[in-house]
Specification:
By secondary structure, the protein is mainly α. The chain contains 23 helices and no strands.
């Protein structure tokens, strides 16, 4: 919030927020990526590429309904926008609507047969249908008088699809509609959890109670059982057992890394609580997030480093979470204090990842409040810690933008060039576009004719990305640059 109490709007450009979202997506930070894409869409609500990008994040988070809505919005003005078609198919597949997903994979493949994504989509949708209801010859798509859905762009709206294998909701306590052996294979360790939940339902005194949030215990247990049953059916349809066994091993490895290879109960406890805090913040419950973080902070401070070996990392994560929550409600000065404490703890514990995150956050606060020189200094310290091309191209671009704000155009151009080189190494067209625009802006202010070259390069990337909004904006900037160069 500003000093006058008015809600602050976006502090940067549309393309910057999109680029930030792309970078966060590739880092696996899907919630933060959604925030960036949403901010970009507040500037240009109908940008179809940005809608598709946000839809991809929702799919990764399992929010198929929102993913589908964004995909459909991207198709409003152009029913043959192939990225929107693919994303709509992906959302439908995630929802378990495999037949309709197959329709849109086929439609996209017909438009762009050279793209492997549509071929793979057709293959996995067909396999899911086979696993669900048998051989391909048994698949019967039911439509209401419009079989041309495979050829027309406006045929079927899948909000309420008619399945040939319509499922009915189960009452709680009903067994999973698969043989027991298959259910055990599908659920793995969760199968014993499901059995335990079934036993809890038999405790009449327990199920009559309520938890602190006011939810009925019975409803909570039934919801968990229903979720496990639904996932069992979905997993059985989606891919065969042997593939899931391989994925489960990979997932277990990821969990081991997430727990920092620690088997101590305190570490697991604090990690679980930290995830709850992040979930509350992602859901927009800032006050709840701050309260939980404050309570957990006291618990962590009261523990010795012998009992909690990664105490500095836990405290750093808590300061980071509090800082991000404070940023969300506009309390930048307080947020900065917590992010600096997170940085101090990272340095004390020689925690490279935590240090990188803290520097990212501190630079972000400085940039949002207009202290661009401080942001530059922090991000320049962060740059040597960048592990991959995505981090480098994002950091160099942000530093260049800050120099542009300070009217230090030569430095802005140089960092734009470094950003482009990093983006070129990883074939990231979006950042190639953004860094080219940055260099074009800097060269134009320096009075150099190279600005036209950079804008033309940015225009080429925008056309490849089929980003109509970017094309229009770059064409205007290119026209203005040419006029200025001829004066």
């Amino acid at each position: 919030m500003s000093e006058t109490g008015e809600q602050e709007g976006p502090k940067s450009t549309f393309s910057t927020y999109v680029a930030e979202g792309d970078q966060l997506f590739y880092k696996g930070e899907y919630v933060k990526a959604i925030e960036s894409f949403s901010t970009a869409l507040s500037l240009q609500p109908d940008d179809k590429n940005c809608l598709v990008a946000r839809s991809r994040c929702y799919v990764k988070l399992g929010d198929a309904e929102r993913a589908l809505q964004d995909a459909e919005d991207s198709l409003k003005d152009n029913k043959e926008f192939f990225k929107g078609l693919y994303q709509k198919a992906e959302a439908l597949y995630t929802m378990g609507d495999f037949e309709f997903a197959l329709v849109y994979y086929h439609r996209g493949h017909k438009l762009r047969p050279e793209l492997q994504e549509f071929r793979l989509g057709i293959q996995k949708a067909q396999e899911a249908i086979d696993n669900s209801i048998g051989s391909p010859s048994s698949v019967k798509l039911k439509t209401k008088g419009d079989p041309s859905v495979f050829h027309k762009s406006n045929g079927v709206h899948p909000k309420h699809p008619i399945h040939s294998h319509k499922k009915h909701p189960r009452q709680h306590g009903q067994k999973v509609p698969k043989i027991e052996k298959t259910a055990k294979q599908l659920l793995g360790e969760l199968y014993s959890d499901r059995e335990y939940l079934e036993k809890l339902l038999q405790d009449e005194d327990l199920i009559k109670g309520k938890i602190r949030t006011g939810e009925n215990v019975q409803d909570l247990i039934v919801g968990c059982i229903s979720y496990l049953d639904t996932r069992t059916e979905f997993w059985q349809q989606q891919k065969p057992i042997y593939a899931r066994q391989r994925d489960r091993r990979l997932m277990q490895q990821q969990w081991n890394r997430a727990f920092h290879k620690s088997t101590s109960d305190p570490s697991r406890y604090f990690l679980t609580r930290l995830e709850e805090i992040d979930a509350a913040l992602s859901a927009g419950n800032v006050e709840s997030s701050l309260k939980k973080a404050g309570e957990l902070m006291k618990e962590a401070h009261n523990m010795s480093e012998e009992a909690l070996p990664d105490k500095k990392e836990v405290l750093g994560n808590l300061h980071s979470s509090i800082g991000n929550a404070l940023m969300d409600i506009g309390k930048m000065d307080e947020a900065l204090i917590h992010h600096k404490k997170a940085l101090e703890l990272a340095r004390q514990g020689d925690l490279t990842d935590s240090k990188s995150r803290a520097l990212d956050n501190i630079g972000g606060v400085y940039a949002r409040i207009g202290k661009f020189q401080q942001a530059i200094e922090v991000w320049e310290e962060r740059a040597p810690l960048a592990r991959d091309g995505f981090e480098k191209t994002w950091l160099f671009h942000e530093i260049g933008r800050c120099y542009l704000e300070l009217k230090r155009y030569a430095e802005a151009r140089d960092y734009g060039s470094r950003s482009f080189e990093a983006a070129d190494e990883i074939s990231d067209l979006r950042f190639q576009l953004n860094s080219s625009v940055l260099m074009g802006q800097a060269e134009l202010e320096l009075g150099n004719k190279d600005s036209v070259v950079y804008y033309e390069r940015a225009l080429d990337r925008a056309k490849v990305l089929q980003d109509d909004t970017a094309i229009e904006g770059i064409q205007k900037a290119l026209h203005d640059a040419r006029q200025r160069m001829t004066q």
